[in-house]
Write a structure and sequence with these properties.
The chain has 484 residues and is mainly α. It has 4 domains: 4-84 and 244-312, HUPs (Rossmann fold), CATH 3.40.50.620; 87-240, 3-Layer(aba) Sandwich (Rossmann fold), CATH 3.40.50.620; 330-372, no CATH class; 380-483, Arc Repressor Mutant, subunit A, CATH 1.10.10.350. 46% of the residues lie in helices and 9% in strands. It has 19 helices and 11 strands. It has helices at residues 17-32, 53-64, 89-100, 110-122, 138-146, 194-204, 220-230, 260-266, 270-278, 294-300, 315-328, 331-342, 353-361, 370-378, 397-413, 419-433, 437-449, 458-465, 467-483; strands spanning 4-7, 36-39, 103-106, 152-155, 162-167, 171-176, 184-186, 209-213, 236-240, 243-244, 311-312. A 3-stranded antiparallel beta sheet has the order 3-4-7. Strands 1-2 form a two-stranded parallel ribbon. It has a two-stranded antiparallel ribbon with strand order 5-6. Strand 5 (162-167) and strand 6 form a beta hairpin. The radius of gyration is 32 Å and the shape is elongated. The chain starts with a strand and ends with a helix. The protein binds one RNA strand of 75 nucleotides through helix 4, strand 6, strand 7, helix 6 and strand 11.
Amino acid sequence: MEVRTRFAPSPTGYLHLGGLRTALYTYLFAKKYGGKFILRIEDTDQEREVPGAVDLIYQSLRAAGLNYDEGPDVGGDYGPYIQTQRRDIYPKYAWELVEKGGAYPCFCTKEEIDAARKAAEAKGETYKYDKRCMHIPLEEAKRRIAAGEPYVIRQNVPTTGKASFDDILYGHVEVDCDTLDDNVLIKADGLPTYNFANVVDDHLMRITHVMRGTEYLSSAPKYNLLYEAFGWTPPIYVHLPVVMKDASRKLSKRYGDPSFEDLLAMGYLKDAIINFIALLGWSPKDTDNEFFTLDELVKAFDEHGLNKSPSIFDMNKLTWFNAEYMRRLPFEEYYEKALPWLTRVLPADRFDLRRLAQLLQSRTEVLNRLPEMVDFLAKMPDYDLALYTHKKMKTNPEVALKALQLCRPVLHSLTDWTEAALHDAVMAVIPDSGMKNGQVLWPLRIAITGRESTPGGAFEMAYLLGRDETLRRLDAAIQRLQTA
RNA sequence: GGCUCCAUGGUCAAGCGGUUAAGACGUCGCCCUCUCAAGGCGAAAUCAGGGGUUCGAUUCCCCUUGGAGCUACCA
């Protein structure tokens, strides 16, 4: 039988990283078994729907490379793939369930239920619907509905016995039915709740494996009751642990945690994010390799390598992955990605940005950090004279002045302003000066960059700045040191 | 509160009765070096606690503790 999995997000905002990971595993699982990966939009809660969120989901999934075989915007044989467009389907099945005794219409209003719940909680009791409407004769109920009375349809959960399901990861999960409530299946607005829609749609769409977050773990037994009542075979379940921000908080936009799109905008590479996310809660068998393309993940993926406990999203490691991916990029590709960030602070006509990018590639953690790494080229920063003092280089302002005075004539007379020529000319005069390389080159670099660290040494920086600017900065530095 | 689930270093994690308890990020040293990176070498750091079962528990069972999820006409 063909494997069919689905990713079924609600369009309530951006695609967060936990969702992306669920989508990724769901995709990997399907592809691993040569099956189909399906996108379904669960928009039955019209109040929570955020305009534009559906498009954002399409966009994010495409950006991530998680192409779905069936979905709202790509079609498929089991559509529509947006639940509000399937609204006529659900009541039909709900009434079938009513006939089979697995559900019943209920005329209690939301206000009545809420009040009862409040009262129960005030007494410290757990609220549970008392099934009062279940005892209304069906004929009478139908008459009231025909008369226009608002109603919902509730699941009729047995009061005794157990409900259970089996999960690839979590094994057999079983609960007492009396801890379960008769949840609403069809709301007063005619739309189904998740509790019902997921069951009907997964069945109708021939979903074989349901992968979803553990927030559904404890209600899964209830869904199985529905499958049983319908006489359908339930899918195979794989519940996935949540992604946390820290030990006790979920990743959430409210705390400023970035979404997938945010990370892309910051200059994280898609492949790095996917690679990192894949390893967050899953580990490959028999290998220490940590680098995987999406295709390699498909081959390596094994649902038994999934971890059962929640994992914390470590920005540090993501950044490390990103830096690695930056380094592994073919230079031209890196250059293309880095350029927009460089030109934000550097006029393209004044600098050899290709050379700068070469120097930057192995030093790039995230693209958005580039501007602050290079802005000193455009404008000499204010800097503290204390920068000239460096213990390991054995320099201080006095040594620095000597060093700069040594370099000045050499650089002034240099006609061939290349890194090699700069290097040879300066290195040639150091031995006779009685100074060490570092004693000359550290101050020189400070003098022309004003930065403790730069994406290259003195020669590279001098080359990038160009003759005029280098000499101007050098002279200014000498003057400053003399008057200090 | 009730129900369900989870528990190896700071983080991601391997392990699936007998191991010096892998590896990676991060941290800290050292080397390389005109700075910072990169690279090389090395170090510190983990089985939450208590009971069982067993010749032997990180591994199996129970309890405690801690954490998470659910407890909606949200998903």
